[in-house]
Amino acid sequence: MSYKIAIVYHSAGGNTKALAEAIAALLPTAELYRINEFELRTLPDYDALIVGTYTWGNGELPAKSAAFYEELEQLPITSLKTGVFGTGETNYNHFCGAVDHFRDMLFAKSQLLVTLKVEQMYQDSDLDRLRKFASLFHN
Ligand SMILES: Cc1cc2nc3c(=O)[nH]c(=O)nc-3n(C[C@H](O)[C@H](O)[C@H](O)COP(=O)(O)O)c2cc1C
User: Nearest 5°: CA angle at 65, between 91 and 75?
Assistant: First the structure.
């Protein structure tokens, strides 16, 4: 059976979407989903889950990411490999706070491999970090 990876992202303005697409391009077998398109009941089919989100409020998860987080943390994901990425803005007090929230939960509940925070729209100068992130999901 092949190694299955789902990339599930939430983006309002497009920054996190662009980052998700760039990561997906580095993992050609991965399936890319918007957060409201991914059915968590299919999660047992996957070896790895990569979650992407922007940050809202004061370092908080946007509503759709929070709903996904709450459902995900109830599931038996002990052996699932996971990663988290996000975009934010460093002029807020808690840069990419939503990434930290997912990181803490997935570190406790799953096999968290890596996290990645990017300032707004990723740049060419971020590509090395994107490649390192993706390389951890190559099998
Ligand atoms: C009302 C509001 C609150 C925000 N709060 C934060 C924050 O606390 N931390 C952060 O890093 N970025 C924060 N941001 C910035 C967004 O996370 C950032 O622009 C992100 O790249 C948007 O992603 P998207 O284009 O995928 O929607 C905030 C933006 C807005 C409009």
Answer: 135
Q: How far is the centre of ligand 1, averaged over its atoms, from the C-alpha of 61 (Å)?
A: 10
DSSP letter at 124 equals G
Amino acid 6 reads: A
3-state per-residue secondary structure call for 5-37: EEEEEECCCCHHHHHHHHHHHHCCCCEEEECCC
Hey, which bits of 24-139 come out as E strands?
31-34, 48-54, 81-88, 111-119
Find the length of the chain. 139
What distance in Å separates the CA atoms of residue 27 and residue 24, rounded to the nearest whole number? 5
> Would the CB of 13 count as within 6 Å of ligand 1?
yes
Domains of the chain in sequence order: 5-125 (3.40.50.360)
> Is pLDDT at 1 greater than 90 in this prediction?
no
Inter-axis angle of helices 97-109 and 63-72, nearest 10: 10
Q: What is the pLDDT of residue 5?
A: 98
Cβ of 89 below 6 Å from ligand 1: yes
pTM tops 0.85, yes or no: yes
